[in-house]
Amino acid sequence: MIRRHYWFSGRVQGVGFRYRAYYIAGSLGITGWVRNNWDERVEMEAQGTEESLDKMVQMLREQRFIWIEDVEIKEMEVEVESGFYVK
Question: Which of 17, 23, 32, 84 could crosslink 46 through cysteines, CB 3.0-4.6 Å?
Answer without folding.
Answer: 32
